[in-house]
Design a protein that fits this description.
By secondary structure, the chain is of the alpha/beta class. 18% of the residues lie in helices and 27% in strands. It has a six-stranded mixed sheet with strand order 1-2-6-9-13-16, with no helix packed on it. Strands 4, 5, 8, 11, 12 and 15 form a six-stranded mixed sheet that branches. Strands 3-7-10-14 form a four-stranded parallel sheet. It starts with a helix and ends in an 8-residue tail after the last strand.
Length: 262
Amino acid sequence: MNSPKRGSITLLAGAMLLVSSAVFASVEPAAPQQGKPATVAKELQQAKTYTVASAPTAPLELEKPKLPDTSGYTAEAIAAKIVRTKAGKISVRRMMQETALKDFIGGDNKMAEWVVRQHGIPQAIFIDDGYMNLKDLAKKVPKQYFSETSPGVFLAKLPIVVGNKGILEIDKQTQELRLSQDAGSFLVNDGQLFVRDTKITGWREKENGPATFKSPKEFRPFLLSWGGTQTYIANSKIASFGYANSKSYGVSISQYPPSTAK
């Protein structure tokens, strides 16, 4: 049975469908914004020919540098520099008032390090006015400060300072020089130091072994050579040295501060 109301609904739906189709059919791509060119996709094509250009290399061509004369720094040349004609003088003195040690006993309570390690007023072994080797040193310094613990192996329990006119040779007769970490030993050269065919080690007596790294601020033995002195090291091994403190980093060369009279 057909109802007039139903027929009107069908006609209305059909009209709406026709209008929708007309709207979608009239939609066009959005025009580009004014002042901006339209984006056009282009297909990539492989180049058939190309040219590679480079800058001229002639300005970069330099002559091979000439190395300085190093003949005076061979092991043989170093050995020839050692003057053994005059025996040096050995003394154990307090560290205070010694120019070569002022940087280690000055302000900021620096001397406390050595007081604690030496259990008293800090002292050092000084080599002055001539030649000395470790065999000679062991004969002249009390054993509680410096000794030969086994053939060719020496243990220093005080700092060793080569004075302004002193000469210290550590050669192959020395199997190893051990600088005691526990007692605060180190080396300062203010004269002439020759290290050849040997070994110098920071030594931890409590463990009877090398003073291996534990922390940056923990004292370990070191070697400092002041500017203007002579330090020669050849065919040698230096191990377990240095800590984070001025002029104590391991093997160092430094200048005296302007305030220090030389």
